[in-house]
Structures are given as C-alpha cells and as structure tokens.
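Task: sequence design from structure.
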C-alpha cells in the first residue's frame, strides 16, 4: 500500500498544535490536511511550516482561523435528494414499525456542521410519526467539534439561499421567516440536541436507531475510519441503520456493516441481536442450586477453563470457579458477599453498570479486548455478561465470563502480518485504487469548497457594487460641494476686491485692528501718511509700529472701542512720513460680525498740516 511521504516539518507543526491547543490531527489524511494548512500559509504570506509555528506562538488568535479552515463545514438541507427520498420512503417507516407507540426513536447526526442535515432528519421524522409523537418520542442528537458551527445550528436561522432545497410545503410548515431569514420552528428545534463530540476520542451515543454521518469519514485515514466505524457499530441498535455520504466508501469494514442500499449509502450492522435463552435443560436451574444439585455439575463448573462468576438478582456472588478464583483473586470466603464490595466489580473492568444493562435489556453484553496486567505480563480478555433464566423463563441472575484471548490476539497479529506480506504482490493495484478514491473524495471536498468560495465571491461582488454606488454618490456630493466652494471663493474674491477698492477710495487713513491689537487692514492713504506698506504691517502688533504717531495714547481708547464702549475722537500731534508736523484726529468704530460678536476696531485718521514755528 502506497504511503504519503512524511514531511518532518509538517509533523512537528501538528505536534506543536496538539501540545499547545489539544487538537490532534494525526488521524486526518495528510494530502487534504496539508492543503488546508497551505491555504492558511498562503493567505498570510508565510513560506514554511516553521515560520507558521513561530507565527502561532506570537499570534494565539490565529488558532481560531486555522481550525475554521481545517473544519470544512459544507452541508445543506436534503443534500443528495434521492438518498433522502430513500430514507423517507424505506428507512423511517421500518424504524417506526419496529417500535411500540411508547418507545423512543433515537437518531444521531455525527459531524452535523451548521445543522442542516440534522433538521432535515427532524422534518422527515415529524412527517413520519406526526408532530405530537415527534415531540413525545423523538430524540435527535447532533454533534460536531466546531463550536461556532454548533452555535449557528442551535439558532436554526438560515439565509434564503440555504433553504432553497427544502420543498415549498415543508418550508411553509416547519420554518418561520424573520428579518429576511428562515428560522426552524421552535417545537421542531427543541427535539434536536446539539453538543460537541470528537469522533476519535469521545464515547459514542448509544442505542441509536439511525446514525447519519455524511462525508465525515472521508477526512480520516484508514485506521481512524475503522475506529470510528467500530464506535458506530457499538452505537447502533441491532436493527439500526447507518446513513453515509455519497463520497464515502468502507475500507476493510465488511465485518461491521453490510449494504442495505448501496446506491443511497444505507448500511446495517452485521451482528445478530443476542436474545435470552429459554432454559429448559437440567443445567438451566437456579444458579444457587448448582453448588448442591449435582457433584458432577459442580466439579465440571469448577474445572472449566474459562473464568466464570455467577451473581444473583440481589447482587450477591453465588459461585466462582477455580479459574475465576485464581485469576481474580477471589477466595471461598468471598462467595456469598455482595459483588459491589469486591475488587472484581471494578477491576480489571467496571461490571456493575453492565450487569444492570444486561438485566434491563435481557441480552448478553460483550466487552472485547480488555487489557489486564497479570503476573507482570499483559493479557487480553473478552468479558461476556449474560442473563440467566429459570425453568419458567424468569431472570434469576447473571453469569460473568473472562475468556483469555491473548493467544488469539497473538495469532491475529501474526495473521495480519501474513496478510500484509501477501498484499505486497497487489500493492500497486491497491495503491492506484486508493489514490483514485482519495482523489474522488478530495474533488468532492474541493467542489464543496468552490461552491462556498463562489458564494463568498458573489457576496463580495455585491458589496463592491454597493460600495461603487456609494462612492459615485459621494463623488457627486463632492462635485456639488466643489461648485459651491468655487462660487463662494469667487464671492470672497469679489468682496475682497470691493473692500480693497473701498479702502483705496477713502481719503482718510483707515486701519483695522483685531481684538489682539494686530493690524488686519491698512489702507493706501495710511501707507502714504505713515510710510509703511500694508504687507509690512499686516499681522504686526499695532502699538509696536514705528510711525510718527504717539501710539501709547491710543491704547486705552482702542481697548474701550473693542469692548463696544463709545469712544470720543482723539487729536494728537504727529509727524507724517516726510517728517512734517501734523495734527492727526483719530476716530474709533467698534467692528462686529453679523451675530454681533466683537471682531476688533476701525481707526479712521484725518491729518491736518501744521505751519512750522
């Protein structure tokens, strides 16, 4: 069998993720897993697995993005309609007919993702048994390891595109449209119990009539698939059904399941349900009598090569043969004591709960390959707990047998090695078959990813179109604002030109001062009178200007005018720019804006020549 080339750097990265976050991906198929990791590296622009490990150390939030990338939650309502139709027409009627009106119907949807297939099963069950019986009898367990997907599934709210595959009459009956989304009806949703379950490490849900696991197994390697299928076989009732996805195929698992409807991927367990034996022979008497009824029978039981215990309905140890006493460390004084008080009740296997199960279900309970260290060596045992019935058919106790299968395990290991040697001749053919199967599964996964990506791209395109319209609207608004600004600029230029022409036309010197006593306007007449141009004085502190006018005497009246107080004209002796002596009369006018807020003061200066003395 061809093996995938091991990349030490990638294996180190998987080990790092397991040790730091407890997520073990060792059982996943390497080609698919490496592609998922590669997708994250490509999106981050990282070139090597070692660099990505350093990135995980620096950015712990990246773990969430990585896990969401690895867990491909691609599902839909009634995916593969023909298979669901077969389930509706053939399987659900059989399940209902095999149950009494009071017996519960138990369904397990493993790897449920966002819940579409779990709700699909719930809808068909409600149709099969009626809504009242659905609420009373149906228990539908839906599990996944993705907490975000489970949260979405619990809400049961889906976009219109997600429910397109739901028949119109079922959509109207079992969904309610709220805020543009379709929500699964409350009474239907309450029958579905969502929870986290890791198929590789967590125990399976038991006594299941239908187990739905669609396109979940295909992400795991062959050993992990066998372990999961073994748990599935344990979880199903003897008359239960396993419903797989169309991309999944069994690998060397014919001993666990056989096809009922291969086309639609429906399988049944191969095991036959164990039923209580009708004891009519002399050796089916009450186990309490076995010790006294016949010396031959007593000796035969005691010398049996299989370690056996017999316990009555009160939980009292009635008999223990020689093998059991030697193996389990039971003395003659322990016979007659309650089993729960003895170490054998929990070591090497907890048997009390299994005794109760065997009595409740009236069938044999088998636990295979129990490993126990005996005399410093490891031994393997199959433990079988079987109800005992009396002559009248009533249950009178249980027998517990420990069958040593260590030699069988050794022979099985040798047989497996022999099989591997024999399979070498067919290695290339088997490799090609597996490669084709893996490629098919990967193509199915890739197709589902592309469908999801297409939906994301369509959504992104819609967002870009919306943004383009918003930008176009914003651009139009900016053009309007630009036109308004241009008009206001023209108006301001006109006003400034008009104001400048006014200042130039006034014969008196006009000076405008702001509240901080800085010059903001200086007319041409002022420039001619005092010998300073407007560009030399604008922004300068007025009282610091070097002109032939005693400016300190104007400080107080200017302050009063700025405050809005009436100020009388002030006449001062001064010298103009030519050094001629003049008499300058200064008028003060308060400057305010349209709201009446003070903006400064306007000084109007009138100069009169004085004859030289």
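Answer:
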């Amino acid at each position: 069998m061809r093996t995938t080339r091991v990349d030490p750097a990638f294996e180190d990265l998987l080990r790092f993720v397991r040790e730091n976050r407890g997520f073990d991906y060792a059982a996943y198929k390497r080609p698919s897993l490496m592609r998922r990791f590669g997708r994250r590296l490509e999106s981050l622009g990282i070139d090597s697995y070692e660099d990505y490990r350093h990135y995980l150390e620096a950015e712990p939030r990246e773990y969430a993005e990585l896990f969401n990338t690895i867990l491909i939650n691609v599902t839909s309502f009634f995916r593969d309609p023909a298979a669901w139709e077969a389930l509706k027409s053939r399987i659900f009627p059989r399940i209902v007919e095999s149950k009494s009106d009071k017996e519960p119907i138990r369904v397990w949807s493993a790897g449920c993702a966002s819940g579409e297939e779990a709700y699909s099963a719930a809808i068909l069950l409600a149709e099969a048994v009626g809504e009242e019986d659905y609420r009373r009898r149906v228990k539908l367990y839906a599990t996944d390891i993705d907490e975000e997907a489970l949260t979405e599934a619990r809400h049961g709210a889906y976009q219109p595109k997600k429910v397109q595959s739901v028949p119109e009459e079922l959509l109207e009956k079992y969904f309610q449209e709220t805020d543009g989304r379709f929500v699964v009806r409350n009474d239907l949703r309450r029958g579905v119990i969502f929870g986290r379950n890791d198929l590789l490490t967590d125990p399976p849900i038991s006594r299941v009539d239908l187990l739905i696991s669609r396109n979940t197994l295909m992400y795991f390697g062959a050993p992990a698939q066998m372990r999961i299928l073994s748990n599935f076989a344990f979880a199903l009732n003897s008359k239960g059904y396993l419903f797989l996805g169309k991309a999944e195929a069994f690998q060397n698992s014919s001993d666990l399941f056989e096809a009922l409807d291969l086309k639609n991927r429906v399988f049944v367990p191969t095991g036959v349900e164990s039923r209580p034996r009708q004891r009519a022979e002399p050796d089916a008497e009450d186990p309490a009598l076995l010790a006294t009824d016949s010396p031959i029978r007593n000796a035969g039981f005691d010398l049996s090569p299989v370690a056996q215990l017999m316990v009555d309905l009160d939980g009292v140890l009635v008999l223990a043969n020689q093998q059991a006493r030697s193996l389990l460390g039971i003395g003659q004084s322990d016979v007659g004591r309650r089993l729960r008080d003895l170490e054998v009740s929990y070591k090497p296997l907890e048997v009390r709960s299994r005794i109760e199960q065997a009595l409740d279900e009236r069938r044999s309970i088998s636990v295979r390959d129990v490993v126990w260290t005996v005399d410093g060596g490891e031994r393997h045992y199959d433990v079988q707990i079987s109800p005992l019935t009396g002559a009248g058919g009533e249950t009178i106790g249980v027998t517990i047998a420990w069958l040593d299968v260590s030699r069988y395990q050794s022979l099985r290991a040798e047989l497996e090695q022999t099989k591997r040697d024999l399979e070498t001749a067919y290695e290339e053919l088997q490799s090609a078959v597996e490669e084709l199967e893996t490629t098919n599964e990967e193509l199915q996964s890739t197709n589902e990813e592309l469908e999801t990506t297409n939906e994301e791209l369509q959504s992104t395109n819609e967002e870009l179109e919306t943004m383009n319209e918003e930008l176009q609207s914003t651009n139009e608004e900016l053009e309007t604002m630009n036109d308004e600004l241009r008009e206001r600029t023209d108006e301001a230029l006109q006003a400034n030109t008009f104001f400048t022409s006014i200042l130039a036309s006034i014969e008196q010197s006009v000076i405008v001062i702001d509240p901080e006593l800085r010059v903001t306007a200086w007319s041409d007449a002022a420039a001619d009178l005092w010998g300073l141009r407007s560009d030399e004085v604008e922004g300068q502190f007025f009282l610091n200007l070097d002109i032939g006018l005693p400016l300190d005497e104007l400080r107080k009246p200017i302050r009063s005018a700025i405050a809005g107080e009436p100020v009388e004209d002030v006449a001062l002796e001064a010298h103009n720019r030519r050094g001629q002596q003049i008499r300058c009369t200064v008028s003060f006018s308060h400057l305010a804006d349209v709201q009446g807020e003070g903006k400064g003061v306007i000084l109007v200066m009138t100069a009169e020549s004085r004859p030289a003395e």
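The longest strand covers residues 377-389.
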